[in-house]
Amino acid sequence: MGKFLFRLRFFMQNRYGTDQLYWGLIVMYVILLLLRIAFSRITLMARILAVLSWAVFIFAFYRVFSRNIERRSRENETFLRLLGRAGKTNPFENMSFGNLPKSEPDKKYVRCPKCKAQLRVPRQKGKHTVRCPRCDHRFQIRIYRGAKK
User: Fold this and answer.
1) Cα 27 to Cα 22, 23, 24, 104, distances in angstroms
2) Which residues have C-beta within 8 Å of that of residue 80, sequence separation ≥ 6?
3) Distance from CA of residue 34 to its chain's centroid?
4) Which partner for 16 in 7, 72, 73, 112 could form a disulfide, CB atoms 3.0-4.6 Å apart?
5) Residue ranges of the alpha helices (H) in the chain?
6) CA pair distance 49, 27, nearest whole angstrom
7) CB contact at 8 A, 20 and 92
8) Which whole-number Å values give the CA distances from 24 to 109, 113, 142, in the listed order?
9) pLDDT tens for each residue of 38-72
10) Which residue, 118, 117, 116, is CA-closest to 88?
């Protein structure tokens, strides 16, 4: 398994990866699939929904593997602006799967939902309450994997 993950990380170097627009497209894909099932008796509508759902799915994965990082970032910013969430907390914020700095594998980096400060917390599996030292806001985080050794 370690060799596979190494090759996957090597392949994904200099590629854009996932962001909020990716997760929004995946949600749209699932909604289109459910609509396709609901309208399965109307064959023309089902075919149109099938084509639309595949187009959304392919575009989402095209963005993940793209090397044009600046353009993908602008698309994501436009998406967030259209949602009206440019300066607000968004539900997809903690869904990025970035690498940890190699010097601190036992730490996790999270952003305060109120003031957007980046916080460093110990990587211990479970639910934790975090207090932001800048704005004194308390919020819950969940860590799925413990410290790497």
Assistant:
1) 9, 6, 5, 33
2) 20, 21, 86, 90
3) 22
4) 72
5) 2-12, 20-38, 43-64, 69-83
6) 14
7) yes
8) 23, 19, 22
9) 988 888 999 999 999 999 999 999 999 998 888 99
10) 116
